[in-house]
Amino acid sequence: MNVVVAIDSFKGSATSLELNQAVKEAIEADFSQVECVCIPIADGGEGSLEAIYTANGGHFQSCSTVDLLGRNCKTEYLITLKENKKIAIIESAKVVGLDLIHPCEETLCQASTYGLGLVVKDALEKRVNQIILTLGGSGTSDGGLGFLQALGADTGDTARTGNPLLVAKKLDLARVKQQFAQINLIAAADVTNVYYGSNGAAKVFGMQKGGSPEILEKLDAKAQRIATYLQEHDQIVLNQVAGSGAAGGLGGAIVALGGELQSGFELISQFTNLEQMVSKADLVFTGEGSIDSQTENGKVPFGIAQLTQKFAVPVVVLCGRYTAIKPQLAANFQGIFCIQSAPISLEEALKKENTLLNIANTAKNILKLFLFSKQSNLEKEW
Fold first, then answer.
1. What is the pLDDT of residues 65-96, one digit of tens each?
2. Superfamily of domain 2-38+282-381
3. CATH of domain 48-265
4. Which end of the chain, N or C, is less surrounded by CB atoms within 10 Å?
């Protein structure tokens, strides 16, 4: 029997690789007839580099830059080969991640994606054929203007202090676009929100990044002005592009450069050969830290459910927290199981040792029931 384990990270607790390995070891220790295949997975957020590196190899390139508040820092990105292309893969959250700050209105008004643009410049100097940015987990809401400034865009802001979206007067991309004439630029997004408006970057995600209703209205109005400018001067209609609001509008900046937005889950699945592995499976375990109303918006469990349906393979979800979801979403899975075995505080639930023990035990019990059911059905057929 073949079991595929492809669980996304439980944020703040355990990585995809750690969770998958815990389930694999527990199953193979108790069920000799089962062969487990672990596939590290992500949706374009944290863990994306680790998932691609585990599946595809490559080397990590170090470079100096600044974080979202302009503080000097060092980061690294992955350079790998696929289909004879030299590819740089940059995880945005390593430079402009929400976890690098204590979000408040002051940080939102200061945060910029400028440092991420510097990392892309470094990758361009390495003569890569393709640059992929994963957009999940950002702490910025600057419309991607800091990113564009670092690459040479003229926004009319010569001082370059604070959130550039608040002070930009224009957006001239002529110098920047030349640099990407021969480069395939892709962004892996984990959301489908647009650049501005009620479903836009500021209004949907700005509050969790520290914004008050007043500053979010201002950011949204500024984003609309930038979008209008791009439509008038470059014939780019950002609000017709799903994902242009990802990472505080960074998705829109990449579209403005002629780049492409892809589902983070689908892109990473291609690197990990997930579909091929699922097609051979008898059962799939997936999961993430929280199953909730956001799960169907490009998250790993939903993406894997679509694959398992294609091959008529049962899929079970393991999670740290499970809140009410639409019946239509729940119907995609054979079961959704919270791994907690008793009432527990958030602090205790996030401890890595608890998470790994609980997910291993839950997976074992589910598999035991699955095997019993399968055996019973065989006996009935006889």
1. 999 999 999 999 999 999 899 999 999 999 99
2. Glycerate kinase; domain 1 (3.40.50.10350)
3. 3.90.1510.10
4. C
